[in-house]
């Protein structure tokens, strides 16, 4: 992006982020901190707009700020292997979460079907199952609802 240096408010608006997000990214060293001009305000290079958009797009794909920092360092044309490793790890996490969600969906759909067919004054199958789940159901539910430890994507940011 070409143009004049930007003050923090203009940078935030151009990139679609908040001022505090910019300051947070500076503390995390994802963005540099420009020196102050004569008037005491910082002037940010227009390239920071693209960098901020990159960070937000990477976060939207689930990359942590630690991963984003690594990806930003790899942008010299030689980091294809490492970038692919980071993306592959992220994809594996997503696929695992999707599998967990599918399992949860299947259990809930089954419970709803049982509830729809329950007649008379019998305990609700949904509530009864949640109150008195068997060991297998408990194990599946814990596996489906427990967040897996994240490899290199543990830190989430603004």
Which descriptors apply to this entry?
0% strand, 158 residues, 7 helices, 60% helix, mainly alpha, disordered C terminus, single chain, elongated
What's the SSE blueprint?
Blueprint: H1 8-15, H2 19-27, H3 47-60, H4 65-73, H5 80-116, H6 125-131, H7 135-145
Helix pairs in contact: 1-3, 5-7
Q: Which parts are unreliable, with pLDDT below 50 for 5 consecutive residues or more?
A: 147-158
Secondary-structure element string: HHHHHHH
First-last Cα distance:
23 Å
Structural class: mainly alpha
DSSP strand count: 0
Largest sheet: none
What percentage of the residues does DSSP assign to strands (E)? under 5%
**Taking Cα atoms only, what radius of gyration do you get, to the nearest Å?**
24 Å
| Cα shape | elongated
Question: Total helix count?
Answer: 7
Number of domains: 2
- Percent helix, as a range, is 55-70%
Mean pLDDT: 85
Describe the structure.
This protein is 60% helix and 0% strand. With 158 residues, it is an all-alpha fold. Helix 1 (8-15) packs across helix 3 (47-60) and helix 5 packs across helix 7 (135-145). It contains 7 helices and no strands. It has helices spanning 8-15, 19-27, 47-60, 65-73, 80-116, 125-131, 135-145. It is elongated, with a radius of gyration of 24 Å. The protein folds into 2 domains: 8-60, Multidrug-efflux Transporter Regulator, Chain: A, Domain 2, CATH 1.10.1660.10; 63-158, no CATH class.
Give a concise summary.
This protein is 60% helix and 0% strand. The protein has helices spanning 8-15, 19-27, 47-60, 65-73, 80-116, 125-131, 135-145.
């Amino acid at each position: 992006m070409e143009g004049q240096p930007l003050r923090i408010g203009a940078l935030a608006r151009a990139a679609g982020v908040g001022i505090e997000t910019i300051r947070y990214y500076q503390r995390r060293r994802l963005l540099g901190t420009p020196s102050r001009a004569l008037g005491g305000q910082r002037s940010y290079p227009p390239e920071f707009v693209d960098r901020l958009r990159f960070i937000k797009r990477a976060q939207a794909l689930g990359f942590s700020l630690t991963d984003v920092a690594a990806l930003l360092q790899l942008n010299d044309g030689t980091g294809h292997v490492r970038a692919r490793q980071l993306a592959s790890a992220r994809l594996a996490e997503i696929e695992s979460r999707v599998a967990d969600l599918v399992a949860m969906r299947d259990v809930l759909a089954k419970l709803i079907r049982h509830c729809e067919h329950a007649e008379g004054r019998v305990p609700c199958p949904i509530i009864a199952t949640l109150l008195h789940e068997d060991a297998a159901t408990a194990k599946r539910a814990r596996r489906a609802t427990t967040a897996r430890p994240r490899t290199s994507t543990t830190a989430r940011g603004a």
